[in-house]
Amino acid sequence: MDTAELRTALRNAGLSQYQAEAYVALLQLGAASATELADACAVPTARIYDVLRDLEANGYIETYEQDSLHARACDPQSVMEDLRSRAVQLDEAAAEIETRWQQPAVDKHMLSIVKRFETVFSRTEEMIRDADGEVQLSVTPEQFENLKPALTEAYENGALVKVSLHSEHSVELDALDESDYRGVATEVRQRTLPTPFVAIADRTGACFAPHTNSVNQYGVLVDDYTLAYVFHWYFQTALWEVWDVVYTAQTGDPPIVYSDIRHFVQDAEPLLHDGKRIVAHIKGYGTDDREPVDFTGEVTDVFYTAVSAPNDTLSFSELAGQVCLTVESNGETYSVGGWGAMLEEIEANRITIEEIA
């Protein structure tokens, strides 16, 4: 510890700036007159006598007369004991603060703006651990590693976990082994451009933070069905649909699970056009009463507003308009829509192809 650091430590221990200056100088001089001491440190001569009296009262020095007022440093034992007791007290205070502190969560609100990315990341972990429907996530490989425990929980809860990986800078990502994703994600895609941090869970919660190189750094926390839908569309069109799949846990054989009706239609429309019979399990809500719906039936028709030949592969953007299914089950016919359905009887949040015949 150098002289400046020693003075700072003494000030932290309760000495004033002038007291710390005078005491450290007196340690170096051993003994000196008041005027000599004032010349040796940054204490004005007019203040040195008051400073010495205060140091003597606190047991740091003693003064004596030799034609003029002199001072010398006392045996530092009492000073050291005082400093050590303060250190112990501060250490105990730190331990007590750690014991009493529990991170207060940002109150859930329709929309919250925060300053720290740590707050966004913490809310994301909380959302993912509670998810049992779908998780959509745009992260760097490092962020993915940090979220693995939470993603594993969501995956085990039955959530479809979609991860878009990107680098912080425009560099190629290192290839990861499939074991890095197994039991953690349903599907992983790789984006070659840096992108914001985005997380959407179970259609109600969303978290957003700009890319680390952005001029403005902030975070957005969403706890609202409609606002989360905006982030969902951004994720699907900019961060997901156009990028290469690097891992998928699903096969082409039933059961094939979908959380988005548009992805279902992309796969099902060609099958129906070829005369295949599709039996699907539908889970969702009634659009009138929001009561849970759960049934299995045959998909007899799909409707979408895109203009496309039946043999063409439908893109996600082509299905941006109304998309719905007609499903027959136990003599009843149901119209099924996706997220935000208003014209259909049922909003589906999980469609599972049980059989293709």
Automatic annotation (TrEMBL):
Xref: InterPro entries: TrmB-like, Tscrpt_reg_TrmB_C, Tscrpt_reg_TrmB_N, WH-like_DNA-bd_sf, WH_DNA-bd_sf
Cited Pfam families: Regulator_TrmB (PF11495), TrmB (PF01978)
Boundaries of every Transcription regulator TrmB N-terminal domain copy: 10-70
Highest taxon listed in the record's lineage: Archaea
Domain Transcription regulator TrmB C-terminal residues, every copy: 111-355
Family: Belongs to the transcriptional regulator TrmB family.
Name of the protein this chain belongs to: TrmB family transcriptional regulator
Source organism per UniProt: Haloferax mediterranei (strain ATCC 33500 / DSM 1411 / JCM 8866 / NBRC 14739 / NCIMB 2177 / R-4)
